[in-house]
């Protein structure tokens, strides 16, 4: 008998494309990057919108000495050419959200390909 799917309030381990997207963000060098990587290794997530944005939860991990709330972000084109943004939010030293949105606020039309992301360190 299969177990029921998780509810919207349940956190699950990072997996699939979300894990690959965050790994792509972590290829950049920024203050606190190593600590953020340790947090990601133990992070759990739950989807918070139709675009695939995630609320992140970290158990035991050291805080990250980032210098701003969004230390790294990325962008790529959706299948129709509209720019998609991916932002990693860190609050009080801990990863909090992976935010994904299009410039025109419409829902994503394709899947974000981590290899197509242009990484931006802020």
Query: What is the number of domains?
Result: 1
Q: How is the largest sheet built, in terms of strand order?
A: 1-2-3-6-5-4-7
Helix content: 10-25%
Low-confidence stretches: 1-8
The N- and C-terminal alpha carbons lie at a distance of 48 Å
Report a brief summary of the structure.
This protein is of the alpha+beta class. It has one domain.
Question: Could you characterize what this model shows?
Answer:
With 122 residues, the protein is an alpha+beta fold. The chain is 16% helix and 31% strand. It is built from two helices and seven strands, in the order E-H-H-E-E-E-E-E-E. It has helices at residues 16-25, 33-42, and strands spanning 12-13, 44-47, 54-57, 72-77, 83-91, 94-102, 118-121. It has a seven-stranded antiparallel sheet, covered by helices on one side. Mean pLDDT is 92; it is low at 1-8.
List keywords for this structure.
2 helices; 7-stranded antiparallel β-sheet; 7 strands; alpha+beta; 16% helix; 122 residues
Outline the fold blueprint.
Elements (H helix, E strand, L loop, with lengths): L11 E2 L2 H10 L7 H10 L1 E4 L6 E4 L14 E6 L5 E9 L2 E9 L15 E4 L1
Antiparallel strand pairs: 1-2, 2-3, 3-6, 4-5, 4-7, 5-6
